[in-house]
Amino acid sequence: MTSRPQSNVDGPAGESTNNSSDPPHSSGQSGGVPPGPDGLPIVGNTHSIIREPFAFLDELHGYGDVVRYRILGNTVTALFHPDYVQRVLVEEPETFERYLFADQGFDFAPEGILFTQGEQWRTQRQLMQPAFTVDRIRSYTDTMARYAEQTADSWETGDEIVLNRAFSRLTLRILTNALFDLDLEPGESDAVTRAAQLINEQSNSRSVAGFLPEWVPTPGNRRYHRTLEAYRDRVDTLIEERRADAAGTEEPGDDLLSVLVHHAESNGGALTEREIQDNLITFTFAGHETTSLVLTYAFYLLTQHDDVRRRLEAEQQAVLGGATPTFEDVTRLEVTDRVLQETMRLYPPAYIIFRKPTRDVTIGGYDVPEGTVLSLPQYRIHRDERFYDEPEAFRPDRWREECVNDRPEYAYFPFGGGARHCIGMRFAMLELKVVLTTLLQRFDLELVSDPDLALSPGATLQPADDVHVRLTERT
Ligand code: HEM
To answer: Ligand 1 within 6 A of 112 CB?
Structure first.
């Protein structure tokens, strides 16, 4: 039997139903199993997820703020209220550990910082943190601007550009240069972006392949394994080369690759070869695909909102007057900052975060047993009308300070939260502003592909089709 959606989004009967944006709080008594759609036997709700994943999230939210659903044998509990997000990510990190479907075969880098837990994760995070301090981030500004300018130089008015592909190449080159001190050849960057694309396809919850374990020899799985193996070989060579460069020098370079190699077990340090390898793979994936997507969505939105684009141009003129942005300039680009925040509200690259409780817990009065997969869907919470008026509208002014103060903090969490929040957040924000500003100072863009942007839920939130624009003269 299917439980009926509740008319409000509060908890089970008997709990206080106060202000509609307040979450239910546990009365201390167990409220039983959360409500939710039961779906078909065995496959659970898999069919609905594959057919219409985003509509399915809306449907789920109709059952309340704590909702249970089933996907091929797993029971998942979705949390739709910012206070629950805050509890899970920030307040009780020991109780809720990261879950990334590694047991379902989605483990492209199991010994890297994305997948590790406990002491192993803490050691890695501490070793890598120095590459992300404000001063280090500031020092990446020139690299970001240089590569953005090279891209602009390679574009000409009248050209048709596939935004998602162009930005994937650009952000990968920025990342590998800033963090690994490497200058990738175009052929090499294509191989890496192809590997990232396969990781996305592999985890695409719309395709049936996304639900098959990794060992099933589908053509997609074979290609994925071949590509990952080739990529691992390449990463091994990079590590060896860096080790050879470092031999005989007292102080390692301060880029992330040199730091990782310096802390290798073979060097008396804490990291195994596999951890170094997996972290390079992790950073190349997590660090370029995400920013590339935000740039793609931001430019897409700007082609649809002339008024916002004009305000951006006015700000750039006032702050930069055509010059290459410096770190200090970037801190003054307030409209640009709001445009990017609003872009990530509507199109969060990490559109859902998963956790697993390490013990039985009660959330919103409902029992959630140890090991239940918890999903925190940014995509849906960012579009919740309890926290955003006309949530589907692109309105950068929502990010003016006075509006932000009216919302619960975790109504917006594109970079996650708590101890495991995105280590690359500052890097990403700087890069987004530098690239957006550099390109917009040179070109206007006109959308050529379908203005109705269809989305595809892979490991990150992808446009279902390439996004084409034509470059026009900047007036
Ligand atoms: C707009 C761009 C980005 C977005 C939206 C984003 C989003 C996120 C989110 C939501 C998480 C937390 C996932 C969770 O808690 O389960 C995360 C973690 C992470 N991100 Fe990002 N990210 C971005 C850019 C970057 C960049 C540029 C880098 C590297 C330079 C990076 C590296 C990482 C790493 C290594 C983690 C794992 C951290 C840990 O577990 O300690 N990300 N990111």
So the answer is: no
